[in-house]
Structure formats: structure tokens, C-alpha cells
TrEMBL record:
Organism name: Paraburkholderia susongensis
Gene Ontology CC annotations of this record: plasma membrane
Annotated TM spans: 24-43, 49-71, 83-106, 136-157, 163-180
Class of enzymatic activity (EC top level): transferase
Residues that bear 4-aspartylphosphate: D512
Keywords for this protein: Kinase, Membrane, Phosphoprotein, Transferase, Transmembrane, Transmembrane helix
Catalytic activity, EC: 2.7.13.3
Record Pfam families: HATPase_c, HisKA, Response_reg
Name by which UniProt lists this protein: histidine kinase
Response regulatory domain boundaries: 462-582
Domain called Histidine kinase: residue spans: 224-440
MF annotations from Gene Ontology: histidine phosphotransfer kinase activity; phosphorelay sensor kinase activity
Catalytic reaction list: ATP + protein L-histidine = ADP + protein N-phospho-L-histidine
Length: 648
């Protein structure tokens, strides 16, 4: 993978170094031409041959100079490799001139001329080693032309000292080649180190850029979140202050209280949306796939949005489909709800269409939500998937949403293994679509629209609450007592254990996650569950309430099957959750060990509704069926056929 960039970097460096030496070579060659001509001319046996040879040498030197100028002026004219080839060709031409010219020395009556010429050739060879030694091609096309004619002629003279000189020259020829080899290796290592350093610097710069972008995105996220959170808080503050006004009538107080509740609800909804996103981001949200009829899911979400669409005079059309899909109905419902709610919000006339397109696929297809609304400009197609981004809500009016729907949808679709696609243009409506897998009709456990019996009532239940904050403990106890529960409060696990030892037998244990003295709710619940198990009451409902998002301990709670509620918890959600857990505990009595616990997604988030409970129950039933059919592990551990549930 890395060979090509390194080879290219080596080539580029080679070109730079090879051509950088050329001006020196140019002058030394003119010098040698001048010296050789001056020495040989008086004794030349064959002037035309001499002129041809030295003319060729001079011409080659000029060609070398032209090549150098060309390289300096137009470095991009050919590739680095081609510049290397051209330089090698120049080497052949340039060094064959002085190399073959030694023949004239052997023709001369002056016996010391061959020796003189040889000294000059060795000097030139040393220059070639220095300037071309780090490239095999340039080196091997220069040195042989320079030295081999001389070695051959010295051998051919059959005198003792010339033969010795030929041997020395041959040795020099071999040695210079060996040195050039290690020279090349060293050069390659230097270039490789430089390239590695360059890569490192580039990747560090890229990582820095990503980190800066992430930090900017985070800043934008917090700026928008804090603005949207402050708005209702500000309103609540003002409204609460006006409750103290002695001049206000009871009717005005009731109205103000209504506004406060409305703003608290708005705040809660926003928190839930942020929480949903954070849960998906932190990888806590689990996908639990079922085989189910897509038409049933379409009908469920369709029926939720039909009244809103009708109120705006829009037709909500659902295309019939017989496809059975294998997907997570709870997450899929959340995706479709978000998309349909946007379609209704951003369409003023025409229709909204929800359906499946096979798009040439024999199995599965694309779920499409299409509307004839205001559409989205192409330059906004990426930004609308950023948190808190809204196309046309500069005053950030909370009634127009918060810009969290599409980021959530995109992440959920990715979590389900698909990719959210968008086709839209201003005034031409929008199409959101993503792929779904076909399921097996034989794998359907029950209809998504089967109704589920309401959970067992809270009346008369015994509840143990553990929280180190006295005001929360007080609030929780008052609330539960209002529902008819018998409540015992404990500030820590010791007080809770003392209550159990004193004979308090709870139907449910509610525990805060962060307790005093660096203890966690997980530790307290483990101790309490242990005590309950020893007392033969292993199926007591336990529920952890946390403001934490992604601690490792929350993940381990998932394995223990402890459900988690995220703050802020509304009374309605707490009650619904407790009722669901009591209902599940009743189901559990006839369930094998290790069967899955309740899915956390049904417990948190702004969309938990009766519909989700229905789906949740179906999922539980399906997984119970799986668990019963397979060998299950004991002690609540998850098995291959019954994956750990989405509790934290
Ligand atoms: P919200 O709808 O709460 O503002 P979203 O994240 O769901 O937040 O959408 C982000 C932006 O994308 C919206 O403000 C809106 O401008 C645009 N948008 C989303 N869905 C549609 C749609 N179906 N038609 C036109 N614009 C849309």
C-alpha cells in the first residue's frame, strides 16, 4: 500500500539530487575536454576520428546542459521517473566520450598518456559515485562506459604494470559498485524516514482538524441546547414568581400553573430528545429485531399522524404492502414517527405518502416517506442532519421543533444497518428513504397491533426508595403514597438493608445512581437484591434512576437486567414503568431463567406510549420463546439465542 507513495517520493528526491549536481559536472566535463584536446592534439594519429569523438563529447555535454535547463524550467513536463531515464541517457552519452577517448592515449608514442588519462577517468568516476551513486540506473549507465574501455585496453597491452593497473581498476570498479549499493540503501532509508514523518505530520494535522471540528460541533450543540433549555426555564421562573403576586386571582393562579406545566412538559420533551440522541451516540441503544408485517407498523404510525394531517387538509396515504420485515419495530416506529411528523409540519397542501418501494429488489426494499411540502434546498441537505439545525427558525421558536428529529432519525437508521437518503428541492416536496431487510412470515410471533392488558395497579404495593437527597426522597415518597403505595425511604444501602432485616418486604426497589460516600446505585441494588434473594424474594422489581449517560457501570447493569430510568422522570413515566415491570415480574414467574429483561428504550425517551409497550411485550414474548427453545444460561446471564436486553 505504502510502496507507491514512497517510490514516488524517492523518485522526486532523486530527480532533485541528480539534476542539482549537473552544473558542476558540466564545468568539469568542459575542463576535461580542454585538457584532453590540448594533450592529444599534437600526437593524434587520426584527426577525423579525434574530431568526431571530441565533437560527440562536447555535444553530449551541451545536451546535458539543455536537459538541466529544461528540468529547471519545466519540472512537470514529464514524470519524475522519466526525468531519471533522461538523465541516465545523458550519462551514457556524456561518459562514453572520455571513456572511449583513452584509445587515443594508447595510440600515442607517449607511454605515460594512458596512465594520465586513467587518473582523469578515476576522478570522473569518483564524481559519478558522488552525484549518481544513489540511483542504480544512472550509476550503471555511467560507470561502465567510463571505466570498462580503460580496463580492457590496459589488459590488452600485455605488460606487467598495465595488467596490475587493469586489476586495480577492475577492483575499483567492483568496490565503487558495492559502495554505491549501500549508498542507495541509505538514501532510500532517509527518504522513507522523511516520507513517514510527512505522513505523521499530515495525519496529525488531519486528526487535529477532526478534533477541532468535533469541538466546534460540541460548542454549537451546547450553545443551541442551552438556548433551547433556557427558554422554558426562563418562562417557568417568571411564571413561578408571578404566583407570589398577592393581587392575582385564583383563576389567574390556575392559568399560570397551567403555563408552568406546559413549559415543564416542553423542557421535558427537549431533554428526552437530547437523551435519545445521546443514548444512540453512546451505543447504549440496542437493536432487537423481530419478524413482523410492515403494513401493521405503517398502520400504527399512520393512525397517529392522520388526524394532524387531516386538520391541515392533507391526505396521508399509506401504500399497501404484504412484506414481512426483520427489523426492530420500536426503533423503526421512532424513525417513521419523526419523518411523518416533519412531513405534516412542513407540508401545506397536497399529500403525504408512506410506503415500500422494492426498487428492483426481490427481497426487502426501501421505506419511503414522501411529501408535497416546502422542500429543502440542496445546500441544506447535509446541514439538516446536524443537531439543532433548522432551516427557517432563526428566532428558535420551540413550537417549530428543535432540530433534533433528523439527526436522531439518521443515527437510528444507521443503527438499523441502513442509510438515510434524501431527495428534495424547494417547492417540490421531499422524499426520505432507507432500506429494510425482508423477514420470514413463519417467524412472526404476534400482530404488532394486539392490545396488551394494562399493568397491575400501584395500589397497596410496598416500595423501598433509596436516595441520599432528602428532598427527592420526600418527593418520591409523597408521590408513591398518593398512588396508594406503602413507602419506606432509605438514605443509603445500609438503611435499605436495615429496613429489609426489619421485615419490610418491598414489591419494588427504586434507587438513585449517585449515592453518598462514593457508592453507586448499582452497588446498593446488588446488596439489596442479594438480601432479597436470600429471603426467597428474587423477583422483586428493581429500578435505577440516573442522570448519568454512558458510564461503564450502566453497561454492566444491562447484563444484570436492571432497568434504568433517566432523569428527569415524570410521575406518569415512573408509574407506567413500575406497572410494566410488575406486569413483567408476573410473566416472569412462568419464565425460564436467563430470559431477557425489559428493554430500556421502552422506559425512556419522549415517545414511550402504549404502542411501545405493546411492541415491547411482543419483543419480550419473542425472546422468551427463543430462550425457551434454546439452552439458557442460569443466573440471568444472556445466551446466544437471547441477547442481553437494552437495559444499562
Ligand atoms: P425540526 O423539524 O424539529 O426542526 P428536524 O431535525 O426534524 O428538526 O429537521 C431539521 C430541519 O429540516 C427542519 O427545521 C426543516 O427545515 C427541515 N425539514 C425536515 N423535514 C422536512 C420536510 N419533510 N420538508 C421540508 N423540510 C424539512
Amino acid at each position: 500500500m505504502r510502496a507507491d507513495p514512497i517510490q514516488r517520493a524517492i523518485d522526486e528526491d532523486l530527480v532533485r539530487v541528480l539534476y542539482a549536481q549537473d552544473p558542476i559536472a558540466f564545468f568539469s566535463h568542459w575542463f576535461s575536454i580542454a585538457v584532453l584536446v590540448a594533450i592529444y592534439w599534437p600526437h593524434v594519429p587520426s584527426p577525423p576520428l579525434f574530431i568526431a569523438c571530441f565533437g560527440f563529447y562536447a555535444a553530449a555535454n551541451c545536451a546535458g546542459l539543455a536537459l538541466w535547463i529544461c528540468n529547471r524550467r519545466y519540472p512537470q513536463l514529464v514524470s519524475p521517473r522519466d526525468w531519471i531515464y533522461l538523465h541516465a541517457l545523458r550519462g551514457v552519452l556524456l561518459y562514453s566520450g572520455p571513456g572511449f577517448a583513452i584509445w587515443f592515449a594508447f595510440q600515442s608514442p607517449q607511454t605515460d598518456l594512458p596512465l594520465l588519462h586513467t587518473v582523469m577517468l578515476v576522478t570522473l568516476a569518483a564524481g559519478v559515485f558522488m552525484s549518481n551513486g544513489f540511483d542504480l540506473l544512472n550509476f550503471s549507465t555511467s560507470i561502465p562506459f567510463l571505466l570498462l574501455p580503460s580496463i580492457v585496453l590496459h589488459f590488452g597491452s600485455h605488460t606487467f604494470d598495465r595488467t596490475i593497473l587493469a586489476i586495480v581498476l577492475a577492483f575499483f570498479f567492483c568496490a565503487i559498485n558495492v559502495y554505491a549499493m549501500s549508498y542507495r540503501k541509505l538514501f532510500r532509508q532517509v527518504v522513507q524516514a522523511r516520507v513517514d514523518q510527512q505522513y505523521l505530520a499530515e495525519s496529525l494535522a488531519a486528526q487535529k482538524h477532526v478534533a477541532e471540528e468535533a469541538s466546534l460541533a460540541k460548542t454549537r450543540f451546547f450553545a443551541a441546547a442551552s438556548h433551547d433549555l433556557r427558554q422554558p426555564l426562563h418562562a417557568i421562573g417568571l411564571l413561578a414568581a408571578s404566583l407570589n403576586d398577592p393581587a392575582a386571582t385564583p383563576a389567574q393562579h390556575v392559568k399560570t400553573a397551567g403555563h408552568i406545566v406546559y413549559n415543564v412538559e416542553a423542557l421535558n420533551q427537549l431533554f428526552n430528545q437530547v437523551l435519545d440522541l445521546a443514548r444512540i451516540e453512546s451505543g447504549v441503544t440496542q437493536v432487537i429485531r423481530l419478524h413482523f408485517r410492515l403494513s401493521e407498523l405503517f398502520e400504527r404510525v399512520g393512525s397517529q399522524y392522520r388526524p394532524q394531517a387531516a386538520a391541515k387538509g392533507l391526505a396521508l396515504r399509506i401504500a399497501p404492502t404484504s412484506l414481512v420485515v426483520y427489523d426492530d419495530p420500536v426503533l423503526l416506529e421512532r424513525v417513521l414517527s419523526n419523518l411523518l411528523s416533519n412531513s405534516v409540519r412542513y407540508t401545506e397542501e397536497g399529500a403525504i405518502w408512506l410506503g415500500l418501494r422494492h426498487a428492483g429488489r426481490s427481497k426487502g426494499g426501501f421505506i419511503e416517506v414522501r411529501d408535497s411540502g416546502i422542500g429543502i434546498a440542496p445546500e441544506e441537505h447535509e446541514q439538516i442532519f446536524e443537531e439543532f439545525y433548522q432551516v427557517a427558525n432563526p428566532q428558535r421558536d420551540a413550537r417549530q421543533g428543535h432540530g433534533l428529529g433528523l439527526p436522531t432519525v439518521k443515527r437510528l437508521v444507521a443503527l438499523l444497518g441502513g442509510e438515510l437518503q434524501l431527495r428534495s428541492a424547494p417547492g417540490r416536496g421531499s422524499v426520505f428513504r432507507f432500506q429494510v431487510q425482508a423477514g420470514d412470515p413463519g417467524g412472526i410471533v404476534a400482530s404488532l397491533n394486539d392490545s396488551v392488558a394494562g399493568g397491575p395497579a400501584a395500589q397497596g404495593r410496598y416500595v423501598l426508595c433509596i436516595d441520599d437527597d432528602p428532598s427527592i426522597l420526600e418527593g418520591l415518597s409523597t408521590l408513591l403514597a398518593r398512588w396508594g403505595c406503602n413507602v419506606r425511604g432509605a438514605r443509603d444501602e445500609n438503611e435499605a438493608l436495615t429496613a429489609l432485616e426489619g421485615g419490610f418486604a418491598p414489591d419494588a426497589v427504586l434507587c438513585d445512581y449517585q449515592l453518598a460516600n462514593h457508592r453507586t446505585g448499582a452497588q446498593a441494588l446488588t446488596a439489596v437484591r442479594g438480601a432479597l434473594a436470600r429471603a426467597g424474594r428474587g423477583n422483586v422489581v428493581t429500578l435505577l434512576i440516573t442522570g448519568d449517560m454512558a458510564s461503564a457501570e450502566l453497561a454492566s447493569l444491562a447484563l444484570q437486567g436492571i432497568p434504568v430510568l433517566h432523569k428527569p422522570v415524570t410521575p406518569a413515566r415512573l408509574r407506567r414503568t413500575l406497572e410494566m415491570l410488575w406486569q413483567q415480574a408476573e410473566l416472569d414467574r412462568g419464565r425460564p431463567a436467563g430470559a431477557p429483561a425489559l428493554r430500556d428504550d421502552a422506559l425512556v425517551g419522549g415517545v414511550d406510549s402504549g404502542a411501545l409497550q405493546t411492541l415491547q411485550t411482543l419483543q419480550m414474548q419473542a425472546l422468551q420463546k427463543d430462550a425457551a427453545a434454546s439452552t439458557v444460561a442460569t443466573g440471568g446471564a444472556a445466551t446466544k439465542s437471547s441477547p442481553p436486553r437494552a437495559t444499562h
